[in-house]
Amino acid sequence: MPDIFIGSPQSGFVISRLNAANDAWYVGRAGMQYRDLIPGMLGGRFIASHIRITHGGETQDYVHYHKALFQVIYCKTGWARLVYEDQGPPFLLEAGDCALQPPEIRHRVLESSAGLEVIEVACPAEYETYADNELPLPTSELLPERLFGGQRFLHHRAREASWEAWRLDGFDARDTGVAAATNGLAATRVVKCNSAVTAMAKGHAGDLLFLFILQGEIGIDSPEENHQLSAGDSCVIPAGVDYMLKAGAGLEMLEVSLPAEPPQR
Hints:
Largest sheet: 7 strands, antiparallel
Strand content: 35-45%
Low-confidence stretches: 1-8
CATH topology of the largest domain: Jelly Rolls
Radius of gyration: 18 Å
Mean pLDDT: 92
Strand order of the largest sheet: 1-24-21-26-19-18-17
Distance between the termini: 16 Å
Oligomer: single chain
Shape: globular
Number of helices: 2
């Protein structure tokens, strides 16, 4: 893991709840609406955002790139038409899909459905974004194995994915391929259970373990804290803390971890 994670260690669970009053959204780049999922950004180490576009059609986006170590986009609802440098013609990122944006790859959001919602996780929390008005997209070459900062571009398609047992009994997960594309830097999985499950988890020793609840409900209990999360809520689980998951039937959640397989403490 590169020595980029500065700032104070996480001291407890970081919880963000979907506010029914709708006052947590703000307008960000290209007119998109953002909601912060990691208040405090873990001392500047990570940022997670719930992003939406309420009106469909062409976007205000432009060809640009980011100087970030890691950045993944998960499509929660709707679709977006995207184009990336050396990755072929524009394609649809649909609900359940995710895209790994390796460092400095040029890209653009061309259009979206009304009500598009995505979850974005990146590090560090503050990174530079630059326009590139000289590079037309799509580019003439198709180079799916090209490395950008040691990572490959990835478009994970949910409809083609398979499910396997997760690390905790009673849960299944689909691995999006982010671990392989980042050479173990990070992983992104979708985790589900079909019936109510209670499972104990040992404390991890990684840099980030982030959960976003896609549907259903889950309780996360530790010796010091107890939290009940519903669809739209998220949680960062602190390192070194044993915890219990109490999932209701029909739970589905997004997990992002750095490194890909956080060691146990």
